[in-house]
Amino acid sequence: MTATGTLRAGLVGLGSMGRHHARVLAGLEGVQLVGVVDPMGDTNGWAQGAPVLATVEELLALGVDYAVVACPTALHEEVGLKLAEAGVCALVEKPVADTVEGARRLVEAFESRGLVAGVGHIERCNPALRSLRTRLEAGELGDVYQVVTRRQGPFPHRIADVGVVKDLATHDIDLTGWVTGQTYTSIAAHTVSKSGRPHEDMVSAVGKLSDGTMVSHLVNWLSPLKERFTSVTGERGCFVADTLTADLTFHSNAAVATEWEALRAFRGVAEGDMVRYAIPKREPLLVEHELFRDAVLGKSDDICTLRQGLRTVEVAAAVLESAATGDTVRLDGAARG
After folding, report:
1. Any domain includes 336
2. Are 332 and 316 in contact (CB under 8 A)?
3. Would you place residue 305 in the very low, low, confident or very high pLDDT band (cuts 50, 70, 90)?
4. Phi-psi region of 310 (alpha: psi -120 to 50; beta: other; left: phi over 0)
5. What CATH number does the domain containing 27 carry?
6. This prediction's pTM
7. Are 84 and 168 part of one and the same domain?
8. Which keywords belong to this entry (predicted)?
9. How many domains, in total, are found in the chain?
10. What pLDDT does 264 receive?
């Protein structure tokens, strides 16, 4: 930290996410972006004027309080361990690592040194999901019965090292556990590979959370339709979050009986009022950086911890195991740390 109290931050990786991290870091209050690591250089000028370095060691030599790890997933463990050994806090892009074992080693490395470390599960900072979580915590839905997510769109050409489960489904696994405050206890899944690449392109998974809530995830990157849908159905109705537009709506169960007999028999639970909430819509990545900065300063703990990121990797591994074996995979219902 500089004499003025400014945190010195570094960035590892200037790819499709790294360039956005650089933009936010360069303008983040109380933070100075002192260096960016990318062995490919910065031909596009994304480093915001910060020196571009070839190695993590060069960044550490500059002296940093924390670093953002936005290199390919397969390199997260190697880079994260170097940062931990140097006593540097880290915000690691999701998923935290490409294997459960790697994620565990990162958890141990940072926790054993008492370093602040988080995972960039950006959906936690989406205005619609933050509002949804607050409303669920306040009991506005009553008992929660089911969480359904759909995440579909065209293939992201930035991805080469993992399939749709680790790249995209990890978003839905994390947000489901986060908004409900529950953990996964079982998962059953099917995957499809159609693009000729070594990894899966589509996944359909159903599971159960520690309080009995049912979950369903549909994820693919083969659809021309771009969709980011989360619904939570419960005792008093259904919340629907669209994280593309950051809109949150609530469809309530009707308080008024339907007199039209045929319609009542067809619909079952009657439709009530629909409310779309007015939510301040700040950029999720900026919110994520503000929360992590505050955590490094000891002012907040509203981040996705490495241990929570590990849990998401464990569930993703269970999804792939289920798809490979055809069996339902049981997970222990350990509390989210």
Report:
1. no
2. no
3. very high
4. alpha
5. 3.40.50.720
6. 0.92
7. no
8. Oxidoreductase
9. 2
10. 56
Taking the C-alpha atoms of residue 115 and residue 199, their distance in angstroms, rounded to an integer, is 34
**Token pair of 202, please?**
């589509």
| Co-location of 131 and 248 in the same domain | yes
Strands (E) in the chain, as ranges, are 7-12, 31-37, 52-53, 66-69, 89-93, 117-120, 144-152, 184-192, 202-209, 214-220, 227-234, 237-242, 247-253, 271-276, 329-330
Question: Is 290 within the bounds of a domain?
Answer: yes
Same domain for 269 and 141: yes
Alpha-carbon Rg for the chain, nearest whole angstrom, is: 21
In a domain, 134, yes or no: yes
How many residues would you count in the chain? 337
> Which residue type sits at 238?
C
**Strands of the sheet with 89-93, listed across from one edge:** 52-53, 31-37, 7-12, 66-69, 89-93, 117-120
Identify the domain containing residue 103 by its residue range.
7-122+286-304
Residues 6+ apart with CB under 8 A from 292: 66, 91, 116, 118, 303
Paired sense of beta strands 329-330 and 184-192, if any: antiparallel
Give the model confidence (pLDDT) of 50-63 as tens digits: 999 999 999 999 99
Query: pLDDT for 55-105, tens place per residue?
Result: 999 999 999 999 999 999 999 999 999 999 999 999 999 999 999 999 999
Same domain? For 276 and 141 the reply is yes
CB 292 within 8 A of CB 31: no
Residues 115 and 177 both lie in one domain = no
Question: In terms of Cα–Cα distance, which of 51, 30, 102, 40 is closest to 295?
Answer: 30
